[in-house]
Amino acid sequence: MEIDILELSDRSAKFILSGTTAAFANGVRRAMLADVPTLAIDDVNIYNNTSVLYDEQLALRLGLIPLTSSLEDFVPQDKCTCEGSGCPACTVSLTLSAEAGEEEQVIVHSGDIVSSDPNVQPADKNIPIIDLRTGQKVVLEAIAHMGYGNKHAKWQAGVACGYKNMPVITFEGCDRCGICVNACPRNIIQLGEETAEISKDDLLKCSLCRLCQDSCDIDAISVGVDERSFIFTMESDGSYTAQQLILNAVNTIKGKASEMQNILSTL
Amino acid sequence: MIPVRCFTCGKVIAGSWEEYTRRVKDGEDPAAVLDDLNFTRYCCRRMFLAHVNLVDIMAPYQ
Question: Do A65 and B4 touch (CB under 8 A)?
């Protein structure tokens, strides 16, 4: 198996995963979406809410804010020794208190949330949570739990994770008529000296629509895929960096496999 | 209020809402602003384009 990184930033990554099967690539994709635990606000104690948002709406907005998480510091609640009752190993308390007072409009942002743990902070500071008008007030305590994306989207660390097969396009017996150049919606085909051609970088942009293949009158183009090579794109919601998220996803698969090995070896 | 995340893909979009509204109000083209803010998928783009901030209408009544 080989990995060739094309782009890697704090929040997103693009890489070519080759020499593996679609089953494995899909396993990694699903693990990033659903099996990497993150922290998200799950319980909210509202002491005062005179804003126009209902308590439930306010709680949903708080829940969806990504919190910076660490797999080393927290354990998912169902695996915690406290058996789900809530302890410092699986929960974090955050408070939010804001008042418009005499001002006409105060927009409360995610950055106004005060966390009891300095390592657990909202990943984005400028998410508007609530719009307070003169005299309105919000005071609440929020409890964040470690949870899984397969339970609720607020615990989903990976966003828009997907892959496509590596395109393989061959030109054979091309007469350089140029019809395929115009047919391609991504404009990646160029006329070379002897045949039409696609540069290596442009090949990644191919959407495998096969319009070039259909447009060719002499059937000189064949569009296929490399079944063992995948162009992977993924984004993180901010709870982990993109790199950490991929590592965590692979580690969860590894953990599950070794768990199965343990069970099978005791039979 | 703008939803915190995109309904379809789950990307956190609310953080860019204030910049988006300010720049559109200043006369910039919404499509160009969304390109600039790195919203490439049409699911996230429609969240901005189709949003009506009802909280402004409701706010005086409570």
Answer: yes
The residues with which A158 forms a beta bridge, in sequence order, are: A236
One of 3.90.550.10, 3.30.365.10, 3.30.1360.10, 3.20.20.80 is the CATH number of A2-34+159-234, namely: 3.30.1360.10
| pTM score of the predicted model | 0.87
Kindly list the residues from chain A whose CB atom is less than 8 angstroms away from the CB atom of residue B4: 61, 64-65, 127
Q: List per-block mean pLDDT (blocks of 10 residues) for chain A, which spans 267 residues.
A: 92 94 94 93 94 92 93 84 80 93 91 92 93 92 92 92 94 88 91 87 91 91 93 93 94 94 94
Asked if B22 has any chain A CB less than 8 Å from its own CB, the reply is: no
Which regions of chain A carry the CATH code 3.30.1360.10? 2-34+159-234
Assigned architecture for domain A38-154? Beta Complex (2.170)
Alpha-carbon torsion A120, A125, A129, A133, what sign? Answer: positive
Predicted ipTM of the assembly = 0.90
Rounded to whole angstroms, the Cα distance separating A192 from A198 reads: 9
Distance in Å, alpha carbon of A127 to nearest chain B alpha carbon:
4
Residues 50-109 of A with CB under 8 A from B: 50-53, 61, 64-66, 107
**Structure tokens of B35?**
């390109």
